[in-house]
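General statements about sequence and structure are easier to judge against a single worked case. When preparing material for the folding task, we compiled for one chain both its residues and its backbone structure tokens. The amino acid sequence and the backbone structure tokens for this protein are reproduced below:
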Amino acid sequence: MFKSGFVSIIGRPNVGKSTLTNRLIGEKLSIISSKPQTTRNAIKAIVNTDDSQIIIIDTPGIHKPKTKLGEYMVKLAEGTLNEVDIILFLVEATDRIPGAGDLYIIEQLKSVKMPVILIINKIDLVNKEELPETIKNFSQLLDFRAVVPISATSGDGTDIVIEEIKKLLPEGPKYFPDDVITDQPERMLAAELIREKILELLSDEVPHGTGIEIISFRERKDRDMIDIEANIYCERESHKGIIIGKQGAMLKKIGTLARVEMENLFGVKVFLKLWVKVKPDWRNSASMLKTLGYQ
């Protein structure tokens, strides 16, 4: 009997959803940053085993939105709750008592009919003796089908996550070929890798005010190479200067690091050109959100 289904990972911003997604599929697919609200789209990642296919949906963190982009992100995450077979609710082991953000999500989950697995992440940051109390504090609020403590960073416990998912998966077909790890177009993956490097290299509000538009993505016929051109949008002239850096040094560094990641992901050489443009308050512009794929 072959099993398959869709599994949504939900939780507050920065609890490790993207790190867990990458760990489960064994590939770098979702971008990762120590900054909250890194993920802006629902990324589908495919995990294949001998007797199952699990489609993991990495969602934006559920938070109180302050912009139209934030509203889109939260709506996207909450919209997966009734469209999947299983929900993974990810929390941090350092939060022994559910906070306001987790309590809000739990209230959302109370009206969901799908089975929910509680994943307690970052167990490497706490004393293991504290876990039973944390599990009790969360479990008394909702009837979870399973509770799995893990460290998405080290991989500790993530094999058990797959086992618990497989127990709950319905019988079903293989939705994707074995060699496919995501349904996301390469253009979107390229844009996300550029944004990841901005998140890594820049601080404060600058990264969260940036959006990436891939304006050209061409595969050369005569050699194994992809030519990519992209616009980096920011909201202020001062931010543009920071992104470009002195004599273009920061923009060059962003491009170099993103290009290396793209070459690892696509398996071919990449020629990358970047431009920086100012679009004030673009996160509240419906037309800009549509242009950048947030719709």
In short: The CA atoms of residues 12 and 63 lie 6 Å apart. Strands lie at 3-11, 43-49, 52-58, 86-92, 116-121, 146-149, 211-219, 225-234, 269-278. The chain has nine helices and nine strands. The radius of gyration is 20 Å.
